[in-house]
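Regression test attached.
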Amino acid sequence: MTTKHNAPFSSELQSKIDLLKARRRPVQMGSIHFDSPLLLAPMSSIGTAPFRLLMEDLGAGGTVSELISCHGINYKNIRTVDMLKVDPREKNMGLQLFGENAKAMSEAAKVAESFGPKFIDINMGCPVKKVVGTGAGSSLLKDTSTLGNFFGEIKKAIRIPLTIKIRIGWDQDSINAMEVIHIAKEEGVEFVAVHGRTRSQQYTGHANWELLEHLGAKAPLDIIGNGDLHTASFVREKMKTTKCQALMLGRGPLRNPFLFLEAYLHENEEIFFTPEDHFEVMQKLVDYSRDYAHSDHILLISVRKHLIWMAAGYNNVGAFRDLVFKTPDLNETMKIAEDFFSTQKDKRKRLQDHDAFMTSGHG
Ligand SMILES: Cc1cc2nc3c(=O)[nH]c(=O)nc-3n(C[C@H](O)[C@H](O)[C@H](O)COP(=O)(O)O)c2cc1C
C-alpha cells in the first residue's frame, strides 16, 4: 500500500485547504447547523463514510448518506445495517432512508437514529423503477394526501430532526414541490432539499433553477437547491445570487473533489489544485476506506471508480483508464495513479463541463 494510515495531507495542500475553508460561513437550516451552505448530496454506493469524511475534510459543510432501505434495516440485513455506520470523525451528517410504509420507516428511523447521525432524511426523489415500483422514492410525490401521516409518524418515532429530499414533481404536468413542502412544514420537517428535475426527466435536460429560486424565496421551510452545480464558476455564481438557504453538490465533487473549496476563490485569485493534490486526495480516500471495506476486491472496485472520475480533465485519461481496469492489485493501481497524476504536464484540469456525466442515480 502506498498510503500511510492517518497520514495528513502535505503542508502545501493543507494550507490551501485551510485558507479556503476559513472563508466559509456556517448556516442554520431549521435547527441543524452546517459549517457552510455547500453540502454533499446523497449518492448511492458513493456517499459512504470514507467519502463523506473526505468531503468534510475538503470543505463540505455537511453530508448525507446514500439511500438505505427501511426494510433492509428492519430485516436486519447485514449489508444494509452496515450502511448505517457513522464515523466518529464525521461532524454534520444525515442518514437517508427510503421506503413507502410509515410504520416500517418509523421503525427503521429509530434504528438509524441509534447510530448517531445529526438528522434522518427521507428519499423522495429516487426515479429508479425498482424503488418507484414499491411506492418509495419519487413515487411518494404522486399522492400527497397520505404524506402528512407519513411524515408525522416518522417524526414521532425519532428525537433528532427529520428532513426530506424531493424532486420538483412527478412529471411536467404535476409539479408539486411547494405543496409537498407545505405538508412537510405542518409535520415538523426541518428543511427540504430539492433536485430541480421531475421524475420523468430522470437526469435529462437541466435542473429548473427558476423554480428552485422561487421555492428558496417563498417556501415556508429552508430550501437546499440541487442540480447541475458541477463547476466552481457555476457554484460561485449561485452562491452570490441564490434565494435558497443552502446548495447541494452531487456529481461535481466526483470529478473535482476541490469544488467545495474552489467555490470560495476570489475573482482572479491564483490558487489552484494540482494533479499531485488530486493524488493525495485519492490516498486519503484509500486510507479512510481501509476501515470500512469488507475485502480488498471491493476496495479496489471503489478506488478504480474514483480514480477515473478524478482523472477527468487531465491528459491520457483513456489509456489510464484501460490500465487501471486491467490491474488486479490495489498497491499497483495506486502506483499507476501516482505516475499518472505526477507526470501531467498541464497542471490545470480542463473539464468539459457541458458533457453529460452519470445520467442515472437514486434521487
Ligand atoms: C450515482 C448517483 C447516485 C445517487 N444516489 C442518490 C441517493 O442515494 N439518494 C438521493 O436522494 N439522491 C441520489 N442521487 C441524486 C443526487 O443526490 C442529486 O440530486 C443529483 O445527482 C443532482 O445533483 P448533481 O447535478 O449535483 O449531481 C444520486 C445521483 C447519482 C448521480
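Expected vs. actual: identical. The longest helix spans residues 275-290.
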